[in-house]
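worker-03 picked up job from queue 'complexes'. Input manifest follows; two sequence lines, order preserved.
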Amino acid sequence: MKHDPMTQATLALSLSEIAALSARATRGAGRSWGEAEETAEAACWLARAGLDWAGALLEVLQSPDAGAECALRAGIALADAAALSGTPPNIQFRVNSCCFLLPFAARMADQTGQRIRLTAADLQVVLAPGACPLIAGPVCISGLAQVTISPDPHNGTPCPDWPLTHRGTVLATEYARLTQFMMAFTVPASASSLAGAGAQGSDND
Amino acid sequence: MTCEGLNPMPQARAFRRKPDEVMRLARMGCSHPTRLSFLRQLLRRMQAEGWRFDRPVWEIDAKGVGRAVYRAIGPARSYSLVAFAHDLPPEARSDRVIATAWDATFALFDGTPTPADLDRLAANVPLQEAGRISPRELSLSRANRSVRLFDHVVERLATGAQPDAAMLLETGYLMRTTAVYGSGKFGAADRATIAQRPELSAPFQAEMLSVWLTRAFTVDLVEHLARARGGDLATRLAPELKRGLGVGNSTGLGMAPFLIRHPVLLNNWMLAREEALARVRAQTSVGQAELAGFLTALDEARTNADLWTSAHDIQRAKLADLRGSLVRLVAHVAQGWDQSAAHPWDDLWRWGQDTLTLEGQEALLAAMLEPHGALIDGLGDCMDADEEAHFPINGAMKVTELRAILQAHYGWAVGVDYTQRSQCARFWYVSEDKLEPRLGERHDEPGAEQELPLDTGRQAAALWQAIRDQPDDLPVAHLLLAAPEHRPAVRRAQITARHPFAEIRDNLIADDMLPIDILRCKLAFFGATRFDPRSDRWVRISLFQGTPYPGEMNGGGDEA
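worker-03 finished. Artifact:
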C-alpha cells in the first residue's frame, strides 16, 4: 500500500491528495498561487472524469512557454470571461495539452448554464452544466492543437452523471515527477521552528 | 448550503454581532466549546438515534500489545475503530508530528472489517504517514500514553485499589492523540464520499467518533493490563473516575491554516454560533428550565476553570481573566440581572460586553447557549459547506463592486503598512521534512520566497492598491488578465462578500500574531477543553471529558 515508485506502476490517490499535490507541484514549477489553486481544482475534475490528470498537468508544468498557448492560462481566462457575455463563445485558438482545458470549459458551461462543445483534432467533448463530460475520440492530445469551443447545437445525447468514485490514478513515474516539482516549493524547517512546535521535547509525562 | 431562507427566527438578525467584532484573533483565541461543537453534535445524534456499540475483537496480550475493534452501529450504517496497541520504548515517545512510533495507532473503518481488512490495516496503520490506507477508512490516528498516569492507574487497579483522583483530574486522560487525519489523507476516503450521510454531514464527525471510541479503548487497556498483572485481585476503574477521563490531544501549526484555507466552512461555523447567540438574545423571557440550565452551565464553567491549568504565561493570564469574569458574572446573575427586561438574555449579554474580559464574554456565550437546545441545535445542520460551489471567480463583477467589498470587509487590512518589519515579520511555509505548515521569521530565516498565501491582509491591501485607480466598470476578468497575481485575493473577497464570517480579520504575518489563537477557535468548535499551550504554536487539549462511554448511551452495548 505504500507509495513506492520503484515497485508500483500506478498509484491511487484520493481527491484531496490530488488537490494538494497538484497545487504544490504547480507552485514548485514556478507558477503563481492563483494558478496553483486553479490547477488543484482542475486536476480533481479530470480525475473524477477518469482522465489522465497527472499526464495533462505535467505537460502543462513542463511546457517551456507558459504564454498564451498554455492550457492553464487559456482556461483560466476563458472561465473568468464566461460570465461576461452570459453565453458560450464561439472561438478557435491553438493551445498546448488541450486536455487541461476541459475543466475550464466545464466551468464555462456552469457559468452560462449552457452546453458547450470542445473540438480538437479527432476529439469531441460535450460539457453540460454540472455533468460528467461526454467524450468521443482520443482525449489527451499532446503538444500544440487547434481547439474550437462553441455552444453545443445538439441537445441530444445527455451527458452522464458523475461516477461515485472519488479517486484518481497516477503512474508512479508521474507521481515521482510531480513530487519533485512539489519539493521545490518546500522549505527546510528551521531549528527554532521545530523547537517552537515542540519537536525537541519528550512525551514521557 | 445556506439556511438563511429557512430561518425560523428572522427577528434574531438584529441581535447578531458584527464580523468586525467576532473575527478578531484576540476574541477567537478566547473561544469556548458550546453545544454546537462537533463532539456534542455526534453524541446527541448517537443518543437520539439509539446507536449500539460492541467490541467484536480484543486480541491484546498481557503486555498490552495486539489489536482490538470497537464498533458503532447506527440506524443505517456501522463504523469500526480498529486499534493497534504497541510496545513503545520510552525513548521513542514523542507527541509531535515528527514522531515515527506510538503507543497505539488507529483507523476508523467504514463498516465492519473482515480479517483480511484487519491484516491489511495491521501492515499499514502502525506506520501512519509511511503507510497507506484505503477509501474504506475514514480516519487515521495515533496516541501515546500519558505515561505517569497510565502506569499509576494500572498499578493501582492491579492491586484492587482505585487510582489517585487528584492525579486523574490533573492530567485528565490516559492517552493523547498526536494526529487524527481524515478527509482523504494518506489514501482515506474523501470528505465528498461521506458528506451526504446524515450522521457524518456535520464537520469532523468521523474524526470525533474515532477519538470517542479511542477513549473507551484507553480505559479498556488499563483495566486489561491491571487484570494481567493483578489477576483476581484487580478491579475496574470506578465509574465516576472513568467519566472524568477524556482523550488528550496534542496539536500544532498543522491545523492552523485550515481555517484560512476553508473560508466558507469557517463562515458557516461562526455564523451558526453567532445566529445561536442572537436567537437567545432575542428571547423575550427567561423560562424556568432555561434559567436552571444556565445556572448549571455557569457552575460547570467555574468548576472547569478551577481545574484548568497551564504553565504558559499567556494562558495563565487568560485563566485569571476567566475566573475573575465568572465570579463577577455569577454575582450579577444572582443580584443584578433584570430578568423582567424586554429581552432579558440580551440585557445580560450587554452587561457582559461592558463588564467582562473577552474570556468572560465568550464563556458567557457558551453558557447562554447551553439551556437553549430546542432553539439552536438545528443550526448544527448548517455548519458544513459546499466549498466547490464557491470556488469560481465571478469575472463579470465590476471593479466598483470589488472596491465596495474591500471597503466593507477589509478595513482591518488595507490601512496596514506591510513594509514595516513588524507587520510582515512572519511567513507561512510547507516544511520539507513533513510537508506540514510551519511559521518562519521573515527577517531571520530563509524560505520566504516559498511563502504560502496566508498573508490575507497583505494580499487584500495589494489588491486595494491595484484597483484604486482602475475604471469603475472594468470587469474582474479583465483585471485578472492584466494582474493575475491578485487572483487569490479576488477570490477571497468575492467569497467574503457572500460569507461575512469567512475571513480572520487580523494580519496573519504580524510579529504579534499568535497561532494558538487560531488553534483555540478551531479546537473549541471541535469541543475541546483544557486548552493548554506549550508555546505560541502548539497546545495540548482534552476531548470528551465528562461525557458518556459507549455502554452508557441509550442503545447501550457490550462495554468491556
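worker-03 released lock.
Chain A has a mean pLDDT of 87.
The two ends of chain A are 34 Å apart (CA to CA).
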